[in-house]
Amino acid sequence: MLHLILLSRPLPTQIRVLSGHSRSIIRRLSSNNRSKGPLNDKLKAIPFAQHIKAAEKTFEDYHGKGFFSARISKTSPPEQVFLPFWVVSATVHATIEQAQVGRRVMRTRYNPASRRNETVWETDWAWVPEKHSFTRDYVPLAHPGLQIYASHRYRRGLIDNITTGPALENAVPFTPSLLDTDVKDVARKVDPFLIYPTTALRFAKSYIQNLEETLADDFLRKLYGMDETRLLKINIQLENVRVSPVYYPAFIFSVNYLGRRLRTFINGYDLTVGGTKIYNWERVAAVSALGMATVMTLTGGIGYGGASGSFWLGIVLPTVATSFFAMYYPILSLYVRDIIRNQEIKSMAQDSASWDDDWVKGYAAFEDQERRRTWREEKQSSWYNTSSNEQHGQGNDPKGYYKALGVSPTATQSDIQSAFRGLAMKFHPDRFTDPEEKKTAKVKFQKISSAYSVLRDDPSFACNMAKPVQRKKQQQQQKPTDTDSSSNVQEKALNPKTTHYEFGGPIGAVGMVVVLPILVLFFATCCDPTGYPSKQFRQDWKSALVSRLSVDFLKSLWDPMAFLVYVGFVAGLAILYVILPGDYIPGTVMRDGKRLKYRMNGFASFHTTIFAALYFLKSTGLKPLEFAYDHYIGLAFASIIFSYAISLGCYLGSFGEGKLLALGGNTGNAIYDFMIGRELNPRIESFDIKFFTELRPGLIGWLVLNYCLAAKQWNELGYLTNTMCLVQFFQSWYVIDSLWNEEAVLTTMDITTDGFGFMLAFGLYTWVPFTYTLQARYLVDFPRSISWVEFGAILALNFIGYFIFRSANSQKNEFRSSPNSPASKKLKYLQTKAGTRLITSGWWGVSRHINYLGDWLMSLSWSLPCGFATPIPYFYPIYFAILLLHRERRDDHKCRTKYGDDWERYCKQVKYRIIPGIY
User: Fold this and answer.
1) Exposure letters 110-130 (e unless 16+ CB within 10 A, then b)
2) Ranges for the J domain (predicted)?
3) What is 400-477's CATH number, 1.20.272.10, 3.30.70.980, 1.10.287.110, 3.40.1380.10?
């Protein structure tokens, strides 16, 4: 049992606790000291002594040195934050009450199983004959484990690594002047104290206990010349306990990696670094493959042609395993740290000395007497006393939402979230066993949950309710009828009636719903090894079309096995979307003021799918992949049925209460709204159907089909033609790049503007995977090889297109997200009356949609390997050109309506729409 004696001092962060059989607790708080948290004259901070440029150089060195380093070059500007720490010091009296020491000896024993004498190691144990006592001073300068992070926001990062003794020695009283910075447009922030000092003292106690046990083990083994110890029992008492609040300066760099936000912390005083390193998994895979291939070759493990089982087990499997581990190492390391931390907390919860009696009463004493939240509001009022802050009061919190969470009306979004997390953990009903306490906690928990549900999406909402006069005028302007309820009025204002049509209106919608599936089935059924189109279709196309309208032919489209495989594939991707880790990235602010969050794990879903397939194929070979080619028609028909079903389900669900509709999909015409998409963001709880559909079933399904078609050619020819390799490389690169930059899709029209209807569902579940694979399917039926000159020319065309496409998009994204970066400042722009800045130089000064040109050049390079024997492999670049032209016209109309005269001036400066000098 660990006994603690905390000697009281007249500081608000310390509580007198006397240890004994009665375990009584005496609290002595100064009557003239009514501070609500750490006193201003006791609160210290380590100043920022390093420039931001030095921190950036340290960050680059930390992630850039070494052959396997990822060499991160592009990150958002670092935050400058004061991080709160409780610093604990104490005098420790430790007494070894009992222990056994043992020496390992080698003896000969008879083994009845083997019927012979064997040499074994045994340990001779003996009790320690006397007690040993030690007195040590634990100071935070020598023990970083006594510096405990006192908040929640960065708790998952390697934040403890930046705590150093030299930096702590230079702490000064915390004043608002420490928040000043000489860097323009950079503001230093303060992470608030959210963990009580008693909690920090528990962590310090655990650290001291573990360290004393280690020291005692080492002392006994050296004293008695033994090899091991066991049954160690130590009695520890703490004196002169002091818990002091200190702010650490930190530059915090954030990197989005595999859908997660990884942070690197750099001490702003001495540039000490803490953070998870990211490794270049491609180099790891290359070194692993080369090394294992060398080993297997020298040992004769590879069979003829490299297709033996030893090749897969000796080279492929280790390479995949090492690259997988290198890729997911940052994520896995965080999970391991979480498991260790949760295990420590769980073991402490089982320790009655940590939670019962002294500690529970001490926690309650500090909580009742020293309320940090009120202290923070007082300090905020005194340090940042401005006329705007003085105007915030009860009038800005008429419903008491801010008061319920213990924050001021000027609180930021992160402050509101931090306050809610702390209160939710504190008043969660599951923490209480007494029925009355559980009932009281449930009421408080519901109150803070209701307040947070209002403030989490739009903190200004509660403040806006304090303007009844303006609200009354707005209601009078709306002039609702007697039969309209207030909710109906708000819904009509939020979802106005669509008065214009696109895509030819209802007639065009009927055509798309009917004709597009027929077109996909035409490519699936009328293209075969006899020709593209088939020989039968070329000889008598009328009879071929009539035969495909017969009942027997329609029945033949239904393939139960293909349908189960397709639905299982989509369901598997949905499961991966739910269970795989990924950072939640907020989307754009919608009309109702909400900002939905999306989980970024598309890249992880793709790799998990591929690795699972490789694991399955290592024992079966590539033969099972021919299923996709043999059942291509059934898979296409299954995807069509699925797209109809999910479109209909989302359309019917859009009539539910509180749905946010797309501005272009609320015409009232059923077939048009079904086609264009009525609801903007259909969701099942947190599962966003449109965002899931956007990249996963379409793009991942496209590549899976491509790889299956490549396997078919390999099985038939025994090798892959260079044209098939080109197509696979180009399209894999395109898809993987899109999945890697998954966050960029949040600003596209598909997510921000268009509803989710048949057009998006069919396009992503059917159109993309079954028309974009025409090139690979054609090369299976008509394999061909090209010269290396043609090979290089097509490769160069694709690289040129990719360079234009990616660099143009990156330039625009950086201009929007980091307008103060050096590259963004070099760009010229036109300031519009709407507040938007339109780029008029760089790539976007060449044409208004230069990225469309790069995208189309890539699509053309995908079809060139197929030759010119038939136009069908060129369907994608032809269709894509029409799509881009139509999209450009839609964008032009939208911008002309939004910007008015500013758009006319912009068009005069940037004359060409897509192709410079031509169009």
Assistant:
1) eeeeeeeeeeeeeeeeeebee
2) 400-478
3) 1.10.287.110
